[in-house]
Amino acid sequence: MKNYVIRRILQLIPVLFGISVLIFAVMKMIPGDVISGILGIEATPELRAQLAAKYGLDRPYVVQYLDWIGGVLHGDFGESIRTSAPILPEILSRFKVTAELTILAAIISWIIAIPLGVLAAVKRNSWVDRFVRVFALLGVSVPGFALSILLILVLSLCFNYFSPLGYVGFFEDPLRNLEIMILPSLILGVSISGSVMRMTRSSVLEVLRQDFIKTVRAKGASERVAIFKHALRNAMIPIITLIGMQIGSLLGGAVIIEQIFSLPGLGQMTLTGINQRDYPVVQGCVLFIAFVYVMVNLITDILYAYIDPRISYD
Amino acid sequence: MEHLLEIRGLSIDLPRGRRQPPVKLVEGVDLNIDKKQNFGVVGESGCGKSITCSAIMGLLSYPLTVGEGSSIRFQKEAGDEVEITKLSPAELRKLRGKDISMIFQEPMTALDPMYTIEEQINETLRFHTSLSKAEMHQAALEMLQKVKIPRAEQILQDYPHHLSGGMLQRVMIAIALINNPRLLIADEPTTALDVTIQAQILDLMNELRESYDTSVIMITHDLGVIAETCEHVAVFYAGQVVEEASVEEIFHATAHPYTEGLLRSVTSLGGAKKELYTIKGMVPAAGNYGIGCRFADRCDRCMEICKTQAPALTEIAPGHKCRCWLHAGGAEKEAAV
Amino acid sequence: MRRLGQTIRDLWRDPMGRIGMVGILLLIVTAIFAPYVAPYGPEKMIAMPKTAPCAQYLFGTDNYGRDIFSRVLYGARVSLEVGIIAVGIGATAGYVLGLIAGYFEGWIDRIIMRIMDILFAFPSILLAILVSTVLGRGLVPTMVAIGIVNIPVFARTVRASVISAKGLEYVKNAESVGVKTVSILIRHISPNVVAPFTVQATLALSGAILTEASMSFLGLGIQPPDPSWGSMLSEARAFMEQAPWMAIFPALFIIVTILLFNILGDSLRDALDPKLKL
């Protein structure tokens, strides 16, 4: 098992490398002169050279890349052009917000989606099944921001409920924190639950058709044993893979939700960076988010290997 | 009750929605299985032999159902008879794996890949006995040895994907027989295996018959397997039994033209035959049967009456039944018309 | 061609498939004929701002006094245009890459799939945002960005189909007889790829429309004053109390459009998959 984990981590390294190169390359391709953006067009050549030297912009691309990556590996993501504040600490503190949002949303989606998905598969063509299929379809089709806006509209106009503004950390004031996070996480969670529900349903249906389920029944097992002991365990594998990919959608969706609910998260930081042309910030944020996504996928892969005895560890 | 298993008027329905009557995939099947008998059920794919046997265990997959008027009577322990079609799900579960067992065609996918062999053997023991863990381990070990699996101790800890098809099928047989069932249904157990492994498995099953009290229903499309293992045979075609006889009579006193066709299709190794014989035409799709004999349009010796009246399964010699006008006095009926 | 007719008939039989097909057809017609059907131009500030829906302005007017009904109709054009072209780019590039990777395997397969893995490592919105920072905002950059986002999915789907098609008997026969590679790719392998590819394309369209709406919502996609449902929704946020209709109608149209494509994609998948009969 240890060998497997080590191997998977090693396989990640080229991917992470590729991602960092891609991000760096993209940043360099952005049209417009960074220096003019900061100093204005009338800046003197000496001032420009000074600033260029400060940011290392006068050196060859490869060197710039290595500088940046070297820094990253030491925990130095550089400084924001706008605020001159170091980037990594801010990423980390904002990441707490995004992580909370994402985790709450994920948990909500699992609580809704998995039991309903299993129920729909087991009771085929019952009203549960039909309800689940419709709900899942809607879940996949209603984008998070549309749902947010409509919900906010309904809540404010019909119930006079306004989501509290401002943000408070969980460890400072748990109740207030949850009050603030409940609506955004609910919306994000519900919009993700659609595809998890579908995947669970089709996965369980697929497994129930397999031969070994017939064998289990032929041994005299009750439906409950057949489903919980055998079908679910086999169905979990594709579901876990899906959940890994879900995190990607969650992170992406979080970006928008943070915007709508004014949550000081990583997504908001990235967008602000883009809008203000603060490229080191954008570089750092995107790299961090991609890194988190890759890590989560690694964890799901390992989980997957742990559950399925067919995966060889060597 | 005279026999171990008595099937009367079994039909199996496939519902087609509220507005149409269901399609009868199997119709009017009557069969008797005796104690310690080896009964073969032979026919092409789709003729209904598998689902008939699934129905015996109450294991028809959704949405198939047993039709009205069907009866399946089974004799459990001495004197205790049950009507399988009327049992509750809980009672059926007690029957499965203990009194009636089943093994399937694809050994490679018949076991749950997530659990070890020992866990899966123990599962059936736990459902039907109250042995302790140590006792179960011992029983499993002995059973694996009985089915001639080498290094049984090691195999118990393996997962299904570590074993070959032949080994897996032996494990399946072990699981099926460990609770000493009165009836074992073997649904094409060797079809997915190599010829040499096939021979081994059939030999194993023949040997085990000596030591166990179990009757075996052997479902297959391969007449060679029938010849090697069975005493009595029923031939299925298009959802009905068309001939039923002892193995000798099926091979040497064949009555039904379909059975004859099947026998001729088996290529003989030593023969000087130049062409493969095939029965002309195709099996009619379920629900699209005409009014006469279902084999009529493929039969060499079809008569007028065959096309208009469906023959009944009649006894043409002691212990030999056939569903064909050629033997049920069809010729006289023809002449009389 | 015959398969196309058969598929359409199968789709028609399925009630959901019928809804999907009819709905999307209506949408396409609306998009094409928007300039003729819409009572006013999408940018004309002709009326009193923030009027409630009435006979003259079916969906009301926005804060600039523009007719929302017209804007929504024009928005359909934009969404469909972006969706179709973006998916077109992604599907074409993905198809070629997947075909090459799947058929030739070996080192070229590994390189292509590695690059796809890297692209896949980004959540799609993030990737689209990233690309659009390079290419800028507006119609064409958005299309290209979403197109690039779609490439990995198509490449993977096509590659999987190609690999399984390669194992088919008649393909091996063709190869052994010496049929030219290009010919094999076109005549033998491609037909097997069509089914999953088509389903993927339909679902990708729904995703593309969603991504475009999200990007426009964030201010990165279609730029005002061009009408896009996403940007309309974003503009509506400030006026939700005074003019809720500014938000309701774009939101509704986004949801319904994505829903229709998903329904069609699902029904298509059921119609084309032989295993799912029964």
Q: What are the key terms here?
A:
heterotrimer; A: 314 residues; mainly alpha; 12 helices; C: 278 residues; MetI-like fold; 10 helices; 0% strand; elongated
3D structure, described in words:
The complex is a heterotrimer of chains A (314), B (337) and C (278). By secondary structure, chain A is mostly helical. Helices cover 78% and strands 0% of the residues of chain A. Chain A is globular. The model of chain A has no long low-confidence stretch (mean pLDDT 81). Chain B is an alpha/beta fold and 337 residues long. Chain B folds into two domains: 5-230, Rossmann fold; 240-336, no CATH class. Chain B contains twelve helices and 13 strands. Chain B is globular. Chain C is mainly α and 278 residues long. In chain C, α5 packs across α6 (139-166). Chains in contact: A-B, A-C. Chains A and C meet through α1, α6, α7, α10 and α11 of A and α4, α5, α8, α9 and α10 of C.
What's the layout of helices and strands?
The complex is a heterotrimer of chains A (314), B (337) and C (278).
Chain A: H1 2-29, H2 34-39, H3 45-54, H4 61-73, H5 87-122, H6 127-141, H7 144-158, H8 174-208, H9 211-218, H10 223-261, H11 266-275, H12 279-307
Chain B: E1 5-14, E2 23-33, E3 38-42, H1 49-56, E4 65-66, E5 71-75, E6 81-83, H2 89-95, E7 100-103, H3 117-128, H4 133-146, H5 152-156, H6 165-177, E8 183-187, H7 195-211, E9 215-220, H8 223-229, E10 232-237, E11 240-246, H9 247-252, H10 257-265, H11 304-308, E12 314-317, E13 320-322, H12 330-336
Parallel strand pairs in B: 3-9, 3-10, 7-8, 8-9
Antiparallel strand pairs in B: 1-2, 1-4, 1-5, 5-6, 10-11, 11-13, 12-13
Helix pairs in contact in B: 3-4, 4-6, 6-7
Chain C: H1 2-13, H2 15-37, H3 68-104, H4 106-120, H5 124-135, H6 139-166, H7 169-177, H8 181-217, H9 229-236, H10 245-272
